[in-house]
Write a structure and sequence with these properties.
Largest sheet: 2 strands, antiparallel
Strand content: 5-15%
Shape: extended
Order of helices and strands: HHHHEEHHHHHHHHHHHHHHEE
Number of strands: 4
Strand order of the largest sheet: 1-2
């Protein structure tokens, strides 16, 4: 089996085949991803697919391709799209923490002691992140199972299995909290590390958050199981009623007519309607109301045809061409005149011969426009000149 020689080769390969891997990851739930589909995404270059196969990035099964389990698990973990609840990973991390604490206490070399401490800190972070991710995955799987599983028996079995996963997570949280509270006191006293203290605090916060979420998850599982049991009871009764009806003994074997006659449940009554008059302002301004009006208008077809009034003839006065002239100030021409003069810019602007009457406010605007557009050919100094209570930077041509 060929492997990547270094991490740069791995990143280069993943980057080059990003389109193919992204498409295969989106369709990982599908059992079929044809080889010819992959060829379209690699510009019909079969060597690129063979390269991925040789490096075990993807696997081939007949004419179908799929991402290798190692890379698939990596993508799902990083993108938080994993559906597997792996409690054994948390348990392994707890054992790993205990082992490295023992190694730390037995070691006399400071460098090796630091390496064991670093492993403990990394593993503590992994425990917090893994526990939190498992709780999120557990809640998502419970919702998906209840809403999407069509078989009632499988739905109940899966929910019970997920409830057992919840209990495992609760036990692991208790073990982790016990490790932090009643663990090796010597280690936590001797390993006086500021980062370790922050990691422990963060881990406790994560575990507390997980505990609160698991309480709500337990209530949700119980509620879902009760709903499934209720639905099963209803279906079983319907099957019995259907059997009696098919045997033409429903009326003689049951008193369903008496039961229905004595039942005054609201469900058997027509739904009342309450007309609501909306304000004209709301109907004219709200977009949702306008969309509802369009839907109603499509369903209602009126046979009345309205005759549109004919407009009067347009007067010839409105059709005559009118020309309006406006005098513009040429900033390019002013710039050329300024660069050829010996004035500073504000004096030049104030004394310039304009083709129309210009107010002082307009002169200030022209001054700012010239400075902003032609700053590269002007020399802007740190000196200032005041005109009409406004300070202007002294600007000269270069």
């Amino acid at each position: 089996m060929n492997t990547f020689s270094n991490i740069k080769e791995l990143f280069t390969t993943l980057n080059r085949e990003a389109n193919l891997l992204s498409e295969m990851f989106k369709k990982r739930k599908s059992v079929n991803y044809k080889y010819e589909y992959a060829l379209d995404l690699v510009e019909n270059n079969d060597n690129r697919i063979q390269y991925l196969l040789s490096r075990d990035v993807i696997r081939q099964n007949g004419n179908n391709l799929e991402i290798d389990d190692l890379f698939l698990q990596f993508f799902e973990q990083v993108l938080n799209a994993n559906e597997e609840i792996n409690t054994s990973y948390i348990n392994e991390n707890i054992e790993k923490i205990k082992q490295n604490i023992d190694y730390y206490l037995n070691e006399t070399n400071e460098q090796r002691k630091y390496n064991y401490l670093r492993i403990v800190k990394t593993t503590l972070r992994n425990v917090g992140n893994s526990t939190l991710r498992n709780v999120v995955d557990l809640k998502r799987n419970i919702d998906n199972t209840f809403k999407n599983e069509p078989n009632y028996k499988n739905k109940k079995a899966k929910l019970i299995h997920l409830d057992n996963k919840r209990k495992d997570i609760v036990k692991l949280i208790e073990l982790t909290e016990k490790l932090l509270a009643d663990g090796d006191i010597t280690f936590f006293k001797t390993a006086t590390d500021e980062e370790l203290s922050r990691i422990i605090i963060q881990l406790k916060i994560q575990l507390q958050k997980c505990t609160h979420n698991l309480i709500e998850t337990e209530r949700q599982i119980i509620d879902f199981l009760n709903q499934i049991q209720y639905q099963n009871n209803v279906i079983e009764k319907l099957r019995q009623i259907k059997y009696l009806k098919d045997q033409f003994i429903l009326e003689t074997s049951t008193d369903f007519r008496v039961v229905l006659g004595n039942n005054n449940a609201v469900v058997f009554e027509p739904n009342p309607t309450y007309p609501l008059k909306l304000s004209l302002e709301y109907l004219q301004s709200d977009e949702d109301a306008y969309a509802s009006i369009l839907k109603v208008s499509k369903r209602i077809k009126s046979g009345v045809k309205f005759s549109l009034p004919v407009a009067e003839k347009i007067s010839n006065e409105y059709l005559e061409t009118q020309i309006e002239e406006e005098i513009q100030i040429n900033l390019e021409e002013m710039k050329n005149g300024f660069t050829a003069s010996s004035y500073n810019l504000i004096d030049f602007v104030c004394n310039y011969q304009y083709p129309k009457d210009v107010s002082f406010e307009d002169m200030v605007t022209i001054y700012c426009q010239l400075v902003s557009q032609y700053s590269t050919v002007f020399e802007i100094t740190d000196q200032f000149q005041e005109k009409e209570n406004i300070e202007f930077a002294m600007v000269y041509p270069q």
